[in-house]
C-alpha cells in the first residue's frame, strides 16, 4: 500500500491477547509499506500478549475451556512461533484433545508478541511502560496520555483494550468483606490462583463456600483439591488431607454448565452444514435490521433445521416442533426448560458429552450455537442496529453460554467425583438464603443448611461500563467520551472500534475493542475474537485515518 505518512504513533492501553491481535492486524497491513510504527504500550502488569487471564506464572490448574484442536489463532505473519498447535507439539503437548493450561497459552502469546515487535517487514519502535494510564486528552496535535504523573504523546491513535477494569464490589460482596474483617472470617477472589492457593494451605479444618457454579468454579475446585496435593484417578478423588473440611457451591439458578463433547469424533456430529451456516448468516443479518420484538425470530428459525436434523441423526427424542418450543422459552426465560436437580443435570450433561445418551434440544442448540460464533460476530459486530435489538441478541447469546461455553468433560467428571466422595456438597446450591453469623455465614435452602467461614467469589463482574471505577474510564464517562450502549452494557463503538461519544460522533483516533464494548459487539469472551474481524476493521480504520490526516492542509 502506498502511504503518504512515514510514521504512525500508536498507544495501546492494555496489552493482552486482544492488543496482540490488533497489533498483528496493523503490522500485517504495514508490511513493506515503508511506514514506521512508533508503538507505546501501557501495561501495569507487563504481560504483553498474555494479560492476567493467561499469565504464564499461574498454576497449571487453570485450564482453557476448549481443546487444543479448537485453538485456531495462526499468526498472519511468518513468525518463528508458528501457531499454538505447533508451539505445543514442540514442547511435547501435541495431543489435540488436551485442554491446555491457560499459562501455556500465555507463554505462547507473550513469545508471539515479542516476535511480532521484532518483525523485519516493519520498522517498529517499541516503548513498553509498566504504568497505568489515568487520563486521556485530545489536542490539535493528537492524543495525550497521563500515567503516573507523566505526560506521553501525542499519539495519532489510542486503542483501549481494558479486559476487566476495576469495578467496586457488588453490594453483597462488599457487605461480606466488611463482615469478614470484623469477625475473622475469610473472603477471597478466585483469581489470582496463586493467592487463593496460598490462603487455602490453612483451610483443612474450615468449611468453604463458593459463590458461583460456572467455569471459574471448576478452576476453584481444582485449586482446592489437586492444588493441595490430591489426585483424580479412575473416576475417583483421592484426598491429600489438606483440603477444606467441606466445600459448598451455590449460584442464582443452582445449575452446573453442560460439558463439551468428549472428543472430535463426537463433536463433529454437531457440525452444521454449509447451507445451514449460510442460512444462519442471513438470519443474523435480518435480525440486526429488526426491532427488538422481532430480532430473535429469524435467528431461532434458522436454528430449527440443523438442531432437528442433528437430533434425529443421534437418536434424540425430539422433532422440529420441540425445537421451536424450546427456543420460544429460551427467548424469554433462559433455563426454564431444565427441571432436573443439580446433580442430575451434571450426570445427564456428562452422559450427553460422552455420547452414551442422546442429546437434549438444549444440548444440540448449544453446540450448534458454539460452532457458529464466528458468523454471529461477523454479522453482528459490523452492523448498526437499535440498542434494544442489540440487547435482545446479546442476552440470547449470554443465556446459551451454559451450553456453548461449557467446561471440558474432565471438569464435570471431577465435580461428580468430589460429590461422590463427600468433599463437595450441592445441598444449598440454588440461591440459598444467606445470613451473617459469628465467624462466617449461614446458608439455607428449604430444609438444608450449612455454615461456612471462608467465602470465595467465582463470579466475574459483568462487562458494564456504568460499574467501572477505573480512574481513566471515570474521566471518559464524565466528559461524555464513553457512553453505555444500553443499561448495564459496554460502551458504544463503531464497527471499526472507534469510540462514539454521547453527542453521537466518533472520537477520531480513540478506539476500544473487547469485552467492555459488549452491546456494540457480541461474543467477545473468546480467544478467537481477539484475532478476528474486529481487529482487522480497527487496523483498516487506522490506515484510513492516517491517510486522511496526511492529506489535510
From TrEMBL:
It comes from the Bacteria. InterPro entries: FAD/NAD-bd_sf, HpyO/CreE_NAD-binding, L-asp_N-monooxygenase_NS-form. Residues 11-163 form the FAD-dependent urate hydroxylase HpyO/Asp monooxygenase CreE-like FAD/NAD(P)-binding domain. Transmembrane segments: none annotated. This is FAD-dependent urate hydroxylase HpyO/Asp monooxygenase CreE-like FAD/NAD(P)-binding domain-containing protein. It comes from Neptunicoccus cionae. The lineage of its organism: Bacteria, Pseudomonadati, Pseudomonadota, Alphaproteobacteria, Rhodobacterales.
